[in-house]
């Protein structure tokens, strides 16, 4: 998502248009924002629960990234929802997924936030039934195969032997972020087995296929997925489920880079995989 697209803007400008059924992705380089006045502004936005969670973090780096990512969420919601950034109220779903508290206006979009390393990625959608996003820095590990065998479906784990280096890390993290995005969209948290659904890739065509046990979702064709690669390297993924049986179209997400509360700019995302055709449950 590093190549500039059309139209830089500031927070005083009109927001990007979020059409019905559309999804926008917002990317923020957390560690690049160090201006004390800016960080003081971000701190003033946090509610009591956020401030308490911030205070519990031991390391300065973690505190900084928490602060900026939550300012990102509040400022971007305000672009679309017509409220002051400090006024948004949140609650947690049954498995801990953050949600907007009721009664904050019909214009409030659905959202999901993820951060890893120095980057935060926020997805917002108008009228999304379910929405999830995940981003992961490609950390070097010795046990990619072991993690895949314990957590992934057998067909996914079987793709890793024979890969090494950047190719192995890329395959693992592309799968991991897609799975995490789906689980976050469902709001199931750690209660959801990652082996109950699986992805297959046609990399030359840039397509992926999603399949799931019928007990998990009897209508998986309502889902759409996108997988991205970012400089770092990072893998990122977006999962979106249509809001109804008649809404089965998913437009391409638009992507933006931002300094929350100050500037934003459209960017072109490097989408390496996206959903292919409708499929059936197993």
How would you describe this structure to a colleague?
38% of the residues are buried. The strands form 3 sheets. A 6-stranded mixed beta sheet has the order 1-13-12-2-6-5, with helices on one face. A 6-stranded mixed beta sheet has the order 7-11-10-14-9-8, covered by helices on one side. It has a two-stranded antiparallel ribbon with strand order 3-4. It has a domain of 197 residues: Ribosomal Protein L22, Chain A. The protein is built from 6 helices and 14 strands. Helices cover 27% and strands 31% of the residues. The chain is of the alpha+beta class. α1 crosses α3. A hairpin with a 3-residue loop joins β10 and β11. It is globular.
Instruction: Name the CATH homologous superfamily of the domain at 3-33 and 110-275.
Output: 4'-phosphopantetheinyl transferase domain
Order of helices and strands: EEHHHEEEEEHHHEEEEEEE
Radius of gyration: 19 Å
Unreliable runs = 1-6, 278-282
Helical segment tally? 6
Helix content: 25-40%
- The mean pLDDT is 88
Strand order within the widest sheet? 1-13-12-2-6-5
Which CATH class of the domain at 3-33 and 110-275?
A: Alpha Beta
Briefly note the structural class of the backbone.
Answer: alpha+beta
> From the coordinates shown, what is the CATH architecture of the domain at 3-33 and 110-275?
Alpha-Beta Complex
């Amino acid at each position: 998502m590093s190549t500039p697209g059309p139209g830089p803007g500031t927070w005083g400008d009109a927001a990007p248009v979020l059409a019905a059924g559309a999804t926008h992705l917002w990317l923020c380089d957390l560690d690049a924002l160090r201006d004390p006045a800016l960080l003081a502004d971000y701190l003033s936005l946090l509610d009591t629960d956020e401030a308490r969670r911030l205070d519990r973090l031991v390391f300065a780096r973690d505190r900084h990234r928490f602060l900026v990512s939550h300012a990102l969420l509040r400022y971007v919601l305000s672009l679309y929802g017509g409220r002051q950034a400090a006024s948004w109220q949140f609650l947690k779903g049954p498995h801990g997924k953050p949600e907007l508290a009721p009664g904050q206006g019909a214009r409030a979009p659905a959202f999901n936030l993820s951060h890893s390393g120095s980057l935060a990625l926020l997805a917002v959608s108008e009228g999304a039934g379910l929405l999830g996003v995940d981003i992961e820095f490609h950390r070097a590990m010795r046990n990619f195969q072991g993690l895949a065998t314990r957590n992934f479906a057998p067909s996914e784990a079987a793709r890793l032997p024979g890969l090494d280096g950047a190719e192995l890390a890329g395959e693992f993290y592309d799968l991991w972020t897609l799975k995490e995005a789906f689980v976050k969209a469902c709001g199931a948290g750690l209660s959801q087995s990652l082996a109950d659904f699986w992805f297959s890739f046609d990399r030359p065509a840039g397509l992926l296929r999603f399949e799931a046990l019928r007990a998990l979702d009897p209508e998986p064709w309502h889902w759409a997925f996108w997988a991205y690669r970012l400089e770092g390297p990072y893998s990122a993924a977006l999962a979106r489920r249509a809001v109804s049986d008649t809404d089965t179209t998913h437009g391409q997400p638009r992507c933006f880079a931002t300094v929350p509360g100050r500037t934003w700019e459209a960017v072109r995302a490097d989408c390496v995989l996206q959903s292919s055709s409708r499929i059936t449950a197993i």
